[in-house]
Write a structure and sequence with these properties.
By secondary structure, the chain is mainly alpha-helical. The protein is 74% helix and 2% strand. It is globular.
């Protein structure tokens, strides 16, 4: 286990370094991308732009700029005569705040959106999938899969405004989505994010329902299921102890990637419901040409995906005893 984790963590670090290098080249070195001009603003003279370029260090060779950026992440660095403590992701061109502080302000919103959506789409999606598998070919199966097809065909930028119109602006059954800290008011936290949770759950649960049904039907046809059934084991034990456990490995893979994507920034969802999370921050940084924030969001999303893959690989060993981490 320790050797496996060491290899996976080292591999993940290498992948992140490669992604960091690629994004750095795209954002800071690409032709026509004048970093000093973007940092200085629109009404800057050539002399002032040159001074800003020197302060930011973008007049240095590319390899030195990249090493300075990496050094800032691990040990901190000085930018424009101001020390930026590790992990330093630079200063925003838009509000001149440390990028890390800006991201930390937004993470609770994205994390809250992720947690609620994951709970909803897991309960609904897996529940419908199991129901459809155990009632294969019957009305319950067709109804559940009909919902899955309908939900999977939806898009957030279409379903989101429709739900807002129906439940907020037309019937007034719900309030306008907003974020309140869970620790200050748990009830307001839940009610403020309920509609975005429902929107994400409708779309994502559809995939989990279909995936769970197909996996469960496949497992129920395995030889070992026939064996335990022939030994007289009850259906409840067969379904929960043996069959459902066999479907958990592929679901864990799907779940790990979905959580990583949501934590990396649910861009469309946060934009549609006007939630100040990482996704909305990414949109704003593109509009403002805020390169340090754009790069930090890309690295955050990449880190979430890499960590999720490592965690999923470890979880496999606990879900499926046939898997060995060597």
């Amino acid at each position: 286990m320790l050797a496996f984790l060491t290899r996976r963590i080292l591999g993940g670090i290498l992948i992140l370094l490669i992604i960091c290098a690629i994004t750095f080249m795209l954002f800071y070195v690409a032709p026509g991308n004048n970093v000093a001009r973007l940092a200085c603003g629109k009404s800057c003279s050539p002399e002032l732009i040159a001074a800003v370029a020197h302060q930011l260090g973008v007049d240095q060779p590319v390899w030195k700029q990249f090493l300075d950026y990496l050094g800032g992440i691990f040990a901190g660095r000085t930018i424009a005569d101001t020390y930026c403590a590790a992990p330093c992701l630079g200063y925003s061109f838009h509000n001149h705040r440390p990028v890390l502080d800006t991201i930390l302000d937004r993470i609770p919103v994205t994390f809250s959106l992720t947690i609620g959506a994951v709970v909803l789409f897991l309960v609904v999606g897996i529940g419908l999938g199991l129901l459809a598998a155990l009632r294969k070919g019957k009305v319950a199966d067709k109804t559940a899969m009909g919902f899955a097809v309908l939900g999977g065909a939806q898009q957030i930028f279409v379903l989101g405004p429709f739900l807002l119109f129906l439940f907020v602006y037309s019937t007034h059954l719900m309030k306008v989505p907003s974020y309140t800290s869970f620790f200050s008011n748990p009830v307001k936290w839940g009610t403020g994010l309920l509609l975005p949770w429902i929107c994400l759950a409708i779309i994502t649960a559809a995939y989990y329902a279909r995936f769970t049904r197909s996996s469960m039907v496949e497992v129920l046809n395995e030889d070992y299921i026939r064996t335990v059934r022939a030994k007289g084991m009850g259906n409840g034990n067969i379904y929960l102890k043996h069959a459902f456990r066999g479907t958990m490995s592929p679901i864990a893979t799907l779940l790990g990637l979905d959580i990583a994507v949501l934590l990396g920034g649910a861009l469309v969802t946060e934009t549609v419901f006007n939630l100040p999370g990482i996704g909305q921050l990414a949109v704003n940084s593109v509009q403002d040409s805020d390169l340090p924030v754009m790069m930090a969001v890309v690295l955050l999303a990449a880190t979430a995906v890499v960590v999720a893959n490592i965690v999923v690989d470890v979880v496999y060993a606990f879900i499926d005893p046939r898997v060995r981490l060597g």
